[in-house]
Amino acid sequence: MLFFAIRIRSIALILVVAVTTCSLTHARADQTNPAEFRTQFSSLCDVAVAQVTNSNSKGPFFADSYAIRALCVEYDMTGNQKYLDACRAWSDRMIKYQEQMTPPGAYYMHYNRKPGETNGDWYAADSSSIGMAVLATSVRCPSVERQRYLASAEKFASLVMSNYVKPDGGVTDGIWHESQDEWWCSSCLFGSFLFNLYANTDDARYLKTALAATDWLNRLDLNKKQPFPLSQQGPAMIFYVMENYCAGWPYIEKDTKLTPAARGKANWCLSWIAGQQSVPIADRQWQPTKGWGMKLGGLPFDEYIFSLHFADSEKLTADGDAEMKRLAAIAFTGKPEFTQLTAFLMMAYAERLDPGAIYRAAK
Prior knowledge:
Elements: H1 2-9, H2 11-20, H3 24-27, H4 35-52, H5 61-78, H6 81-98, H7 124-139, H8 143-163, H9 184-201, H10 204-218, H11 230-233, H12 235-252, H13 259-277, H14 299-306, H15 313-331, H16 340-353
């Protein structure tokens, strides 16, 4: 309402506001949310509620975590308590498991090292995804409950910062038998988590560590030989790397030393995404119904986020919309089911329908 009041008073003032304000509404002023996206998102949210509240489900918790973050946005848009209740129930399970984990502060991933065990792999990367979902739940809760979720996230942050963050800013993947070196997946996801944690705590330690992880990613050649390289993981690698830039951009762009390389890396990833999306799905190297290809559902999320920050906003939004329609034709063939494809699609729907809400902070 204020925006339109200003327009009525002064067209000149509007021009100033349009140039100087980074407004989510302005960034997509000429885009209309497709009504079909709203219907599809709501349908997937109901499928996800059944998944995340099922204590007998067998899926990895990192996949659930992306659905949880999207369910938080559905709660924002509808006020329907069932969505927040599902997020609370899931987050409470994560905390219950966390209290029994070794090392202290770790999240149980629903595979490998279990609560009470002292042997087996445990990964900082997948746990960072879980932590982001716990944080997203905290944002929508009253202060006392919020503090409980924040305390859980800070325990996890302390564990990784004390043991797995290297001097050059990169992050190892926790207790991983294959490598104790810095790794792209743990670096980008823990960085993303810390950007979210900083937004909810104002603790400068989190921002400093997140920006250091960004600096490490800026210097990483994504094409180089490494564990689970781009040639193998494709869309999974790009989605996870890009989440660091998506979550951190409001802070990254204020750091003049980091910004040029970060902008270059984000543009490189967006170009890679555009290249994938230009190929018919049947001809793609990674298929969206299996393996790493299921992360294709999350790539429009990256385009939507950067449509709020980069000059080619209309093209990024249009490309994201076109890919969403292609993937929806697969996800909604028959009755939709909960898969990694639909979990990552939910992130993209949430950002398209409620810009910025995925990274909403409590304060």
